[in-house]
Amino acid sequence: MSSASDPTHRTQTLDLLRIHVIWAHGSAEGARSAELLSKHFDGIGMERDGVAYRVPVRFASAPWDYESPLPAEIDLSRAVHNAIILLHDDVMQDDVDAWDDFIQRTRKAISQRGNRDFLIPFGSPSGDPALPTDAAANIQYTYRKAWTRAGMSASARDSRLLLHTLYQIRRQLALLGGGDGHEKIFVSHAKADGDTTASAIVAFVNDKGQDVSLHTFYDAKELNPGEDFSERFAEEIAAGTLLAIVSDAYDSRPWCVFELTTAKRKRRPIVLADVGQRRTSRTYPYGANLPKVRIFPKAGETNWIEPLLVEALSEGLRCDLFERQAARVVGNPADVLMLPRPPELFDVIDAENLPSLIVYPDPPLSAIEEGLLCKALAVISPTTRLSTLGELS
User: Fold this and answer.
1) Do 69 and 87 belong together in one domain?
2) What domain range is 64 assigned to?
């Protein structure tokens, strides 16, 4: 069978996800926000170990011809899923009827593809009403005017835009995969010196001024009397993103080690937030091989929280996309150990049964790391080989 007639081959040649950003030509704010999104998703924002796991970002703004303010129709056929971000504003409102027709044609195209794609609309910063057909259908827009009223700085508004976009993309992909779309952020911390930072994050997420529908899990306060808290913790971690507040005491606390180890075993997204002040007596050896962000929380300030949440959700999306892409490439995922991070001795020794192939994200391991792993595999599972997803593809 030729590749042209093989639907499986065609699926694998498509981008798994594309992002299309729509804004009105001539809108300076629209152009700036579009560049922000492009830089984050198609650039350094999705970087991992020196190689960016990028999501292609395409712009829909420049008029297609001189007779219309509209860009060309969006080509949805180049990706398995398309996330379409609408940046509505007062410039778009000047040609509201034309843009209304454009968005409704886009919604129709999404429907014709079986709703594998989704539209994420952001409302006008100046408070203009939603596009007429969307307003009549009670379509919810993210209310950007409220960000200005709340006195948010430009950088804070940028973080909020990224946070909304990341959350909605992950939510929609989860729903399309049969999930409920309500993944929690498990805030792992040591009570001794990390509780203030952790509680500040949880309070911020749950504040009524936070309009992203994030959910958190925060130690025993989330438990019901009579519950086995170790089982509940493991259950929440297995279905969430772990945000570890790595203080001086973190690596010495048994429950912190349990939470971090559980997240690694379950191959969940993990981000370490480094708040160390003085000295760590001993670093937990399996807390490495993870993205770490240095943060400097100050009493009464919250401007560090949303950028940290953006990091956590970005790592979550990177893991989501790797797992989905790996499943497309390897055929039967049950026969392969798919690791969202470079493999380490922990993965080899802790596995109950090692398959013939371990797949991990690019780039390939260094010679030293690979050599150590191959020594372990030679004893534990000699037939198991290592490969990056790029090498398989």
Assistant:
1) yes
2) 3-149
